[in-house]
TrEMBL record, chains A, B:
Pfam families: CbiC
Family per record: Belongs to the CobH/CbiC family.
Name listed for the protein in its UniProt record: Precorrin-8X methylmutase
GO biological process, one term: cobalamin biosynthetic process
């Protein structure tokens, strides 16, 4: 199983794509850690956008912390259901609380986005694991705020919120927070980037990396 | 409810984003049909990538056919579950058959991708409506093949498969098929593009467009 392909035709397409991706971004990946290179390749494969190879930035402890958490089958928390539904090969739990009744109540009470309230709720119920954000800057800001006040047991964050309002700032704040993370600098990001990043690591863990 | 925002904070972010998006792509949208412009704006909002305004191409009957189908609550068929889970406001059915047992059997028997087998399966069970493709070129090729042999009752296609192998070709084939469609020309596309396109139309229908 490689990049979601489960048939011969699917595997051939994925292999051919891998070769094209490597040739497009070889200057950005030839001298970096192979696990980080694998993540970048998979992001470019998923978006067909080589610019991501220049936008991705890793905290030095991201890969190690994320792999430890995945090996322990800790929870993965996503900001929206689209991200959750792309994470299909994990043995642990993949949660998204954005439609939870309690979350909708928190959002109304504090007049914050549901995505932000969902992170608050995760903290309230004792979440431990990796947070994967593919959409909402407000969720990322909330995660940083809770981490910094010791209220969120997050081991690593995939920070790929997208948009022209807040996304770039939220990723700069993540870099400065010192939470082990991967981010795509600037406005770009999104669900395929977030899913590609975490799925690369899940596959490595399954291969007994 | 605008672009998924349901709280005051969310609405403010969406409005601010809309203004930025309009200013970034005004040359591409100022002289086109307002519904097509709305779709393009929403794609750029969802990807934070203004290049999409240059890549999007509409068949002249796409908007009309898609809106008629949505008004009649016909089915929406997606290639992968990530696309399905992004379409949250539709009153009709949103289907994705990629994990269906029969589809897995068809894929093995004919050695085709599951995404392609899922379109075959939809044809077999008498699907009627709109197909939304955010990932798999093989699904799009299969839809065109079945349409051309009068075996698929598809009213419109959102064609946003992504990748360096087959995606661009599948979208060229869609343009030449004369199926009412929206495509993103070239390798780029993906689930956010697909979801943004159909959600823009679903919202317009709800507003009694």
């Amino acid at each position: 199983m490689f990049m979601g392909a489960s048939t011969e035709e699917g595997k051939l397409i994925a292999e051919k794509s891998r070769i094209i991706v490597k040739s497009l971004i070889k200057d950005q990946i030839e001298e970096i850690d192979p696990t980080e290179a694998d993540i970048i390749e998979r992001i470019v494969h998923s978006t067909a956008d080589p610019e991501y190879a220049k936008l991705v930035q890793f905290h030095p402890k991201f890969v190690e912390n994320a792999i430890d958490s995945l090996k322990a089958n800790e929870d993965i928390l996503t900001d929206i259901n689209m991200v959750k539904s792309g994470i299909t090969q994990y043995d642990g739990d993949v949660d998204c609380f954005i439609k939870n009744d309690e979350v909708i109540k928190i959002a109304k009470e504090f007049d914050i986005t549901r995505a932000s309230a969902a992170i608050q709720y995760a903290s309230d119920i004792g979440f431990k694991g990796i947070i994967v954000i593919g959409n909402a800057p407000t969720a990322l800001f909330k995660a940083i705020e809770l981490f910094e006040s010791n209220k969120l047991n997050v081991k690593a964050i995939v920070g790929a919120p997208v948009g022209f309002v807040g996304a770039a700032d939220s990723k700069e704040a993540l870099i400065h927070s010192n939470i082990p993370s991967i981010v795509t600098k600037g406005p770009k990001g999104g669900t395929p980037v977030a899913v590609a990043s975490i799925n690369s690591l899940i596959r490595l863990v399954k291969l007994n990396y």
